[in-house]
Amino acid sequence: MIDSLPKRRHRSSLILIVLMIGTVLVACKKSDTAAPPPPSETPSEWTSEAASAPPSDSAGAPAPQPGSSAPKPSAPPPSAAPPPPPPGTNCVKNPRACGFPDASTTGWQPTGVKLTTAGVKLTSDAEFQINTAGAVIDGKDIQGCVSIKANNVTIKRSRVRCDSYFPIRVYDGFKGAVIEDTEIDGMNSGTTNAAIGFDGYVARRVNIHGVGDGPHMGTNVVIQDSYVHDLANCDICHNDTIQSSGALNVVLNHNTFINDAEGKNAVVRIATEQGDSHNFLVENNLLAGGNYAVQVRSQGYGFPQGVKVINNRIVPTWRFGPFDVTDGTIVATGNFRDDNLAPLSAD
C-alpha cells in the first residue's frame, strides 16, 4: 500500500495536466470563431467603378487565372451638366441650330434612300394615280403630280416634282393619307395652287419649295416637323406658306415656314371664304416673312373660331406686322421676336 501511493499521486498529476491543456485548447478555438471586427467605413479597395459595376451575366463564373487581369467594369457615365441651349436669336439663319426643321432634317435626302422611278407610271396628263387603299409609296422619284383616290395611303422617302396645280392632292371622300420624309418641288411654277390639298392628311418632315402656295387644308390636317420655303415668284402669285379658306381641326406644330416671295401675302393664313373654320392650332413654329406672319380674317362664313397661336418664334421680316386679326379675337400667347426675344401680341 505504501509503495503504490507515489504512483497514484503521479497519475493524478498527469490527469490534471491533461485537463488544463484541454481547457486552453477549447478557449483558443472559441477565440478563432468569434466575429471579425467591422470593416472600416472606407475600405482601401473601394472605387466608384466597383460600386457601379453591373452584375455578371453568368453567376459563378470562374475566377481569373494567375497572371491574368480581371475584366474592369465600365465606368458610369459622368454626371455632366446638360448641354447649353441652342442660340436664342436669329434662328432663321440656321433653323436647325435652334431645333427647327430645315433641309437637313426634312425630305428624302436625310434618310439615305436611293430613289427609283421603277413602278411609277404616269397618265397622259403626267399624273401618278394611287387607287389602292393602304398603298405605300416608298423611295420613288415621281416626275408628275400625285392624285390620291384611296384611304390610308402613305408616301414616304420620295420626291414629287410637279409644275401643275396640285403636286399632291387627296380627293374628296378619302382620308388617312400620310406624307413623310418627302420633297415636294413645284418647279418654281406660278400655276402651282397648293403643294398639298385638302382634307384628311398628315405631313411629317416634308420639304416643300418652288410652289405658289404651300399646303392648303380643309378638315383633319396635321403638319409637323416640316420646312416650307422659297415659294415661287410670278406676276400673278399671291403667296401663302400655309392657307386655309375654311378649316376644321388643323394642327401646325414645330415647323419652319418662310414666305419671302415677291408676291407674299401671309405666312399662315386662316380665313373663311369657302366655309367656316373651327379648331386651328399654330404652335412652336418658326415663322418668317409675309405681309403678316399670321393672318386671321372673317371672309364670308364668319370669323374663325378656336384659333390658338402659341409659343411661336416670329422673324421681324414682315411687311406690315406680325398679326392681322380682323373682326374677332384669337388666343395668342408666348409668341416672340426671333431677333431679340421681345414678346409679340395679336392685339
UniProtKB/TrEMBL annotation:
Protein name according to UniProt: Parallel beta helix pectate lyase-like protein
Composition skew (Low complexity), residue ranges: 42-72
Region of interest: Disordered: 31-96
Residues passing through the membrane, by range: none
PROSITE patterns: PROKAR_LIPOPROTEIN (PS51257)
Taxonomic lineage from the root: Bacteria, Bacillati, Actinomycetota, Actinomycetes, Pseudonocardiales
UniProt biased composition (Pro residues): 73-88
